[in-house]
Amino acid sequence: MLEIKNLHARIAEDETEILRGIDLTINAGEVHAIMGPNGSGKSTLSYILAGKDDYEVTEGEILFNGENLLEMEPDERAAAGLFLAFQYPIEIPGVATMEFLKTAMNAQRKARGEDTLSIPDFMKRVKEAAGHLNVSMDMLKRPLNVGFSGGEKKRAEILQMSLLEPKLCVLDETDSGLDIDALKIVSEGVNKLRGPDRAMVVITHYQRLLDHIVPDVVHVLSKGRIVKTGDKDLALELEKNGYADYIDTAA
Amino acid sequence: MNASAPIKHTQAESDLLERFDRAKDGLAGSVAVKALRDAALGQIRDRGLPHRRVEEYKYSDLRAYMKSAAPLAGAADEAEATSLIETQDGFGDIDRYRIVVANGSFLAGLSDVEALASEGVTLTSVAEALAGETGTQLVASPKSGLTDGVVALNTAFLQGGVVITVKSGVEVSKPVELVQVATAKGAQAVRNRVELGEGAKLRLLETFAGDTGEGELNTVFDYDIADKAALAATRLIVGKTDAAQLFTTIATLGAEAELKSLGFIAGPQFTRNQQFINFTGENSEAKIYGVTMAGGKSLADQTLIVDHVVPNCNSREFFKTVLDGEAKGVYQGRINVAQHAQKTDGEMMTQALLLSEDAEMANKPELEIFADDVLCAHGATSGQIDEDLLFYLRARGIPEDEAKTLLVLAFLSEAIEEYGEDDVTEGLEARVRDWLADH
Description:
- The complex is a heterodimer of chains A (about 250) and B (about 450).
- Chain A has helices at about 40-50, 75-80, 95-110, 120-130, 135-140, 150-165, 180-195, 210, 230-240, 245-250, and strands at about 1-10, 15-25, 30-35, 55-65, 65-70, 80-85, 170, 200-205, 215-220, 225-230.
- In chain A, helix 6 packs parallel to helix 7.
- In chain A, about 40% of the residues are buried.
- Chain A is built from ten helices and ten strands.
- With about 450 residues, chain B is of the alpha/beta class.
- In chain B, the strands form two sheets. Chain B has a ten-stranded mixed beta sheet with strand order 2-1-5-7-9-11-13-15-17-19. A nine-stranded mixed beta sheet of chain B has the order 3-4-6-8-10-12-14-16-18.
- The mean pLDDT of chain B is about 95.
- Classes of the chains: A alpha/beta (about 250), B alpha/beta (about 450).
């Protein structure tokens, strides 16, 4: 589903190199965790996948279901089935959450040549997904993420993910700012979306999230490169020993 | 000032003097009213049209903008007026009463005179009133704004308009639309007076239909709001026209009175919407909102002076501007608090969103406070669309243009929603979308 080949990237503004040759292949049905210390390039990788233009790819390519992802606009990537759950979901004053959900769902459907949703169909989907994630109707009426707590913002991200039914979910530190109960709700929401046709990239600092969302593959990212790949036990090992070994390896 | 030095008239000013000579015998009014017209024209003759060296017009140089002055529009064609109103309806499906002022004159035949009368609202033609004993009052009674150049221009050429009088205690059941129409090209000078008796309540919708060609549209609204009365006025200044759109509000509030207004500008090449708000009784409140969209090389100016001359009154001013192309936006807002106007609460905010590199916003909030126990605040911001917001929306599959529309609408809706006249919200937001689709 996703093939990243020798990806090099830098910050567009000051040309600081962040990614220094990433190779990563993710197949449908797999959940990959990417772990690594601060500044290793985890969030940069997620933003590059989503198409944020603060970063410049200097070498390499990314194929998403065979298509050149880097040539697609952010909204085209989303319509093609890529979803980034943001580490810091942005507050958008004046845009009601419900209105936003409808606009996003219909924009993607339109881009794929599908019919727009009828209001009752849309409401039914939202109510069902919101119920699972403990998102209240009151939250849905409020402007998107405005005044939401950290947990509410993350739940709203997973709600969007559920409704948009992406093929590839990229979760950027979805566990940050969550207490144990919220972590559970969010993880359950994510697990519900696991399936043979869908892949996930879970970016995190901590092993904790991976107790709830159990990965098939774990990668360690350090200084812009994947320095180690293993199974879920690698995460446990990291939790015990820290990143020191890998930082040294990369240096 | 230096009134003795004769100025060199522009083409438009020469046209105006000539227009006056030709029109003055036909213009309505008693001898006393004619004297007021002469004096007003004298002001134009001596000082010219308002220009950038007049502080209040520093950013909106009407003198430079008006290249010529077209003659006044002649009598209106009622059938044409009816068809224009139907095809250019400004407010969609809202159930309302309608009052028509066409080519500068009140048209009783097209207005809901009887239905309004049954609710306690009487309509009087300004042109007729000018000829009577109250004519001078009509022109000269507002306490402020009279020395303003645009108001002087209005007084000199005043054709007519309507006086809407709402009886004490009457709460008019439906909004009243006052639609000004141009069935023929030509300038219009209109004055409308809204008199609310004690405890009366009125929701007013102010619109325009038709085309004045190159003739300026100059309308003065005089709101006289008695004690405990409440007026909500929504003003639409829309349409693609090169004719200068000059709107003035002069509002006088009694005690425990409320004024709420929204000035909505989208489209014209040159717009000045100026408001003079006077508190004359205690415990009153004015909430003044502005929503402005300007593109191309147009200019849109929202100017406001709020005079707190008595204690215990609140005012809230909230203005939003979106600019594209090489457009220029102007916000000038001044809150004056007199020495004895203690416990005044004034809060003024102006925010601009610039969609292009070449757009320009002049924000000038001013507070002039002589009392020592007041709460007054002002703020001004101007900026571009937040790239992070835009990216977030696009990352959810919303194409760039649609995402921008959503963000601009959200930005402007803050003012529309705080204004809170729910039945006009949808129509106004549709107009925002239309404007955005064009830019």
